[in-house]
Amino acid sequence: MTRRTHALRAAGITLLATLALGGCASPGAEGADGSGTTTVKIGMAPYFEYQPWVLADQLGLDEEQGLDFQFTNYTSTDKAVVAAYRGDLDIAPSCQACTLPLMGQLPDIREWMITNQFKGFILIGRAGETETFEELSKEVGDEEAKKQILESLRGKEFAIRSSSYLSLLTAALEQVGMTTDDITIIDFQSDSQAALAFIGGTGDYYIGSLPEEAKLLASPDKYVNAGGTDVLGDAGLWFSTMNATEKWLTENEDLAVKLLAVWYRTMTYMADDPDTMVPMFADAINEATSATLSDDDIAYITTELERFATLDQAETEFYDPESPTYFMKAMDFYVPASADVLPDDYDVDTAVQNAEFFQRLLDDDDLVEWINSPI
Question: Could you report the per-residue pLDDT of 280-318, keeping only the tens digit for each?
């Protein structure tokens, strides 16, 4: 498969009722050296963003910090977040925009860690029926091409999981004075259902998870990339996250910092030894998604469409307020867009604790030295 733009992994929102507040990490069995280990129950979803946890486990990085990772797979991140709230997990995968609609039903869920920045938002259209930003911009320039493509969406149908992508479309259309009332949303329960319907002829456009988008774009005679963030604008600034309950974070602050250290140690491996890590990543994501992506596909996706930052890179790119990819800029779009589903007392500084835990990691000289030590 040649290099092509892949699209957004999605995490939908399925609201479940009658939930109990979550538990905490449990002490594990004694290690071979007589030291205790701490079991960490990690929820996994079939997306690129969370596979480094599997790689960390395979490398033994959890054991180096006295941890024992235990994984439970979920078909979507919303199910994992619900499981964490219920106490079945310690930490759960999600994304910034995905968590917001949950806050009314799961008010004690806290976003405490950024895994990566996703850079592959795209609109998939039908070949022969859809103008593309790549071609149009050559004729009229970037700004005019964006304007023309966005305005051409008026009256079009979108096969999507609206709980994941409606806020993205809302912010994109606002750039040209349009609203989602100007388009038609055909809502589905999952990305795969939306993709199957799109393949069957439903809708003019599709936005969905990376595996589904990759399958569609493998048939360029049928489907095309109409435009990515060049069209969608700053609303395309998207971060995947890990979440936990307020109770778990309060009781396990030091453990959470260790988990961050394990993650960034894995990023060191990915940056310094791609020849080893890319095949491992390919095995992990192909097993998680039943896909057959090649090592070349993985190398392209994990470097061009997913920003897996090292510790130093994350500090300057994600956590610096002056950075164009500062993580809170995304919340400036998604919090207002989710106003109708957020509780009246929602406080972003309480619900989003990424910077606080990242700073705790930076303040721990021993962990920082371990993260950056030669592999």
Answer: 999 999 999 888 889 988 998 898 779 999 999 999 999
**pLDDT (0 to 100) of residue 55:** 98
Q: Which residues pair with 198 in a beta bridge?
A: none
For residue 361, pLDDT over 70 is answered with: yes
Are the CB atoms for 309 and 267 separated by under 8 Å? Answer: yes
Domains of the chain: 26-119+237-372 (3.40.190.10), 123-236 (3.40.190.10)
**Reduced to 3 states, what is the DSSP secondary structure of residue 282?**
helix
What pLDDT shows up at residue 14?
A: 29
CA distance 46 to 33: 34
DSSP secondary structure code for residue 124 in this structure: E
Q: How many CB atoms lie within 10 A of CB 350?
A: 12
DSSP β-bridge partners for residue 69: 40
What value does the mean pLDDT take over residues 183-192?
95
Contact 115, 241 (CB under 8 A): yes
Which residues lie closer than 8 Å to 214 by C-beta, 6 or more apart?
1, 4, 6, 7, 291, 293, 297
pLDDT mean over 162-180: 89
pTM, 2 dp: 0.75
Residue in this structure with the two tokens 């390919």, named with its chain if needed: 282
Q: Do residues 85 and 67 lie in contact, with contact meaning Cβ atoms separated by under 8 Å?
A: no
Residue 74 one-letter amino acid: Y
Rounded to 10°, the helix 365-372/253-272 angle is 20
* Residue 270, φ and ψ in degrees, nearest 5: -65, -40
Asked whether the predicted pLDDT for residue 171 surpasses 90, the reply is: no
* CA 176 vs CA 92, 147, 180, 255, 271: distances in Å: 36, 7, 12, 46, 39
